[in-house]
Amino acid sequence: MARPPSRRPGYNRKAQYGLFASYVVAVSGAALGLLMVLVAMFDPTGFSAIRAVASEVTAPLSTALNSMVSGIGTIDERIAAYWRAGSQNITLRRQVEADRNAIIEAKAVKQENLRLKKLLRLVDTDDSQVLAARLISSSSGSTRRFARLNAGRMQGVRPGMPVRAPEGLIGRVLFTSPNTAEVLLLTDTSNIVPVRRAQDNVPAISTGLGDGSVEVRALSAGRNPFHPGDVVVTSGIGGIYQPNIPVAVIVRVEGEISYGIPLANAARVEAVVVERPFEQVVTRQEGAAERQPADDAAGNEAAAAP
Amino acid sequence: MIDRRMQHVPRLGRTPSRFRLVGTPIITVMLGSMATMAPIIAQSPVLPPFGLLALLAWRLLRPEMWRAWIALPLGLFDDMASGQPIGSAVFLWTIVLIAIDFVEQRLIWRDYWHDWLIAGLAIIFCTLGGMAFAGMTGGGMVRLMLVLPQICWSILLFPFVARQCAWIDRWRVMA
């Protein structure tokens, strides 16, 4: 293709000025874009209102698409399951036997817990759940890991609320629009979760790596206490996440850092549960009048955290 | 008077509506940006930037159609749809269009391979730039290996997108 002639206006003054003006607009627009990015460096959720408009408009379509194709993500799993059906069946049977005993033990422990709590006069009503919703789309082209929830401010979702699935932690709400909410996934590089090892309370910090895994760093000095196969759960420190939500299983240990795979795969879960921030659950007995300011404070604190 | 049944048959001398001429490319790019609406909960950046691919395809196919500032509104729309910080695509896409303008002045003759090379460089620039911006605005730095697959198949996908745009373009100018 030959060079297009229109870029060189020749002696036509008006065309020359027009071309020049278009470049002035383009360059100043680009500078403005850069400025917006710089503003976002200091206030990551500053322009969330602009994005909220887009998510509001596209949410119905995403929801419709989501309901049509649910199940595609697990197709490989199903094929693999057929392949090893026989041996898998035996293993699963054994697993069920073992789990049954564990469940009976756990029930006994739960009863004992209840009794001890009554003894201590601790109030522990579990109405921390706000609602169940679906993840409908995600930032699949970006290096950040956001997902969109099909419930928002009007359904009671607030920034900072933890989001979990039955299998484990998914992330927390970053900002909301009237009918959708943006969830910062556990695997995002800015999502830091205080965790502990499930069996012996070794405290650690889990940070997302952006590629579907997390890195877990122990808070204690000395050699890395983690081994492949260890399960980490939330510790409740920081006041956002409830304690004992399963987070990840360690798969690889390299020096100081352990790498883990989240137990709840955001691509596979059918529905997620939005919960109240943990601190709010603990300090809720003061009455409904004081709940509102606490609500806002928790939201602001969480929004400022990343 | 033309026969009523011949109304939808392309004919010489008829011009399509202004909306079709101007709006089609813009709508194509916006649809490309909206690919993130697909119900995929991705664990890593996997989806090619279809908006950018469409923008490059149209720009290289029809150099006289757009001035460089068209990337401002289209980039803003892309930022709203992708998870990137607002302003990221506004900046990167405009820089790319200005750069293409200047490269085009230097090249005397531009063919298919030049187009692919230009698009490839633009894709690499935008992906790495987007990664840097996402990292600066609170994301933290990620490894380069994470975006390498995305860059690869975006470059490989460009000829396909260019072909689709050319196909749409034939419909666009045909009355």
Automatic annotation (TrEMBL), chain A:
Q: Which NCBIfam families match?
A: PRK13922.12-3
Q: List membrane-spanning regions.
A: 20-42
Which species is the source of this protein? Sphingobium fontiphilum
Protein name per the record: Cell shape-determining protein MreC
Show the Gene3D superfamilies listed in the entry: Rod shape-determining protein MreC, domain 1, Rod shape-determining protein MreC, domain 2
Sequence segments annotated as region (Disordered): 282-306
Bias class Low complexity marks the residues at: 295-306
Coiled-coil region: none
Q: Which family does it belong to?
A: Belongs to the MreC family.
Gene Ontology biological-process annotations: regulation of cell shape
One short Pfam name that applies is MreC
Rod shape-determining protein MreC beta-barrel core domain ranges (all copies): 136-270
Which superkingdom? Answer: Bacteria
Record keywords, A-Z: Cell shape, Membrane, Transmembrane, Transmembrane helix
GO CC terms, sorted:
plasma membrane
TrEMBL record, chain B:
Question: Which keywords accompany this UniProt record?
Answer: Cell membrane, Cell shape, Membrane, Transmembrane, Transmembrane helix
| Membrane topology, as annotated | Multi-pass membrane protein
Q: Which biological process terms from the Gene Ontology are attached to this UniProt entry? A: regulation of cell shape
State where it is primarily located.
Answer: membrane
Where can this protein be found?
Cell membrane
- List where the protein spans the membrane: 21-42, 86-104, 116-136, 142-162
**Pfam families according to UniProt:** MreD
Q: What is this protein called?
A: Rod shape-determining protein MreD
Q: What is the organism of origin for this protein?
A: Sphingobium fontiphilum
